[in-house]
Amino acid sequence: LTINALPVAIISGDETVCQGESTTFTASGGTNYLWSTGPNTPSITLSTASTVFVTVTDANGCIATAERTLTVNALPVATIEG
Fold it and tell me: How far are the Cα atoms of 3, 8, 13, 30, 77 from residue 54, in angstroms, in the given order?
């Protein structure tokens, strides 16, 4: 009997951007990736505020998940007086 350790799923990338910008979340810890938004690639690009999950599968078929939230800040309003 072989007991394989679970993979450690990690998502990296900026968690905060300004309106109109985007960021890339990159998962690691496995050989296959499935995001809650649909893609099965190691990285996804986001530009809207949301919480995403990734399911990571390693070479042994063991599974782990991670989540990360993107916050999108509104742009400041510039005014000129005088």
Answer: 23, 11, 13, 11, 35
User: Between β-strands 50-57 and 16-18, what pairing exists: parallel, antiparallel or unpaired?
Assistant: unpaired
Span 22-41, pLDDT tens digits? 999 999 999 999 999 999 99
The per-residue pLDDT of the chain, averaged, comes to: 96
User: To which residue do tokens 């009997």 refer?
Assistant: 1
- Cα(44)–Cα(22) distance, integer angstroms: 10
Question: Rounded distance, CA 21 to CA 34, Å?
Answer: 24
Q: What is the pTM of this model?
A: 0.89
pLDDT value at position 52? 98
SS (H, E, C) 9-55: CEEECCCEEECCCCEEEEEECCCEEEECCCCCCCEEEECCCEEEEEE
